Amino acid sequence: MAIALILACSSLAAIISSLFCLWVYYSKNSRKSTRNDGKSSDAEKGDGLAPFFDKFHQGNILGEGGFGCVYKAQFDDCSFAAIKKLDCKNQDAEKGFQNGSLETQIHGPSQGSSLTWDKRMKIALDTARGLEYLHEHCNPPVIHRDLKSSNILLDSNFNAKLSDFGLAVTDAAHNKNNLKLSGTLGYVAPEYLLDGKLTDKSDVYAFGVVLLELLLGRKPVEKLAPAQCQSIVTWAMPQLTDRSKLPDIVDPVIRNTMDLKHLYQVAAVAVLCVQPEPGYRPLITDVLHSLIPLVPMELGGTLTQAAAP
Known about the structure:
Number of helices: 10
Keywords: ATP-binding, Kinase, Nucleotide-binding, Serine/threonine-protein kinase, Transferase
Protein name: Receptor-like protein kinase
InterPro entries: Kinase-like_dom_sf (IPR011009), Prot_kinase_dom (IPR000719), Protein_kinase_ATP_BS (IPR017441), Ser/Thr_kinase_AS (IPR008271)
Distance between the termini: 28 Å
Strand content: 5-15%
Pfam family, one: Pkinase
Number of strands: 9
Organism: Hibiscus syriacus (Rose of Sharon)
CATH class of the domain at 95-299: Mainly Alpha
CATH architecture of the domain at 95-299: Orthogonal Bundle
Strand order of the largest sheet: 1-2-3
């Protein structure tokens, strides 16, 4: 297993680098196509939503957040969509997330200074629980398709909630012929970028990138030069499997407060999540069960004070 993992890590950098070029090319052409095409689908215009305005009921709820509920909807052409019904009565809904997004916390002015090791692990655990609900407890299962740190919102206690289901699809409703390539650079799984193959493991890959952000404090993609960039996966993979180097690349904010044993465990989970082959990635349920013992009980895990560092 260790040999296979090291081999996968060594080849991943080349794969990710080539995918960046493909992504940039696709994004430019996609924007041109959008500007030149004056037509839009019923779902984009909103015309096809009318039949569902009186059918927002508990049985169709995919998720619930501070801004309202997300419902499953099926259109006349048998395509599915996730529709968010905003809670207009709650004018202070946005204030429910006093700590903003995870992206703001890590990459904003504070540079992660408010995020201790335990808080980061709690955020990872909450995010994994949210994904597990979508993948395992929705019928049919739902793929978020745009998991990233800016779509993870944090309340005053740093409880994390998934947001922005605008690209979400049900597992039974998609194939590569009826979905436009979507997502965010740095979080998109290689197989989805290459041939449009979309599964729940695509979300697992994105979760792995978020986990690396929490561990390293780096952005998913960083510019090296005006026309050159590097992903966090490409940069980190060779060092994540080297226990002598790993502590040196961790976010300095948490470097002296973490337990090394726990760091190695979380890094191993992240490495598995961002494997180039989806079959080598774990299910989000397995990820969740790996994280629970690393989070203190008072934060939603099972780690006791006696076992804590």
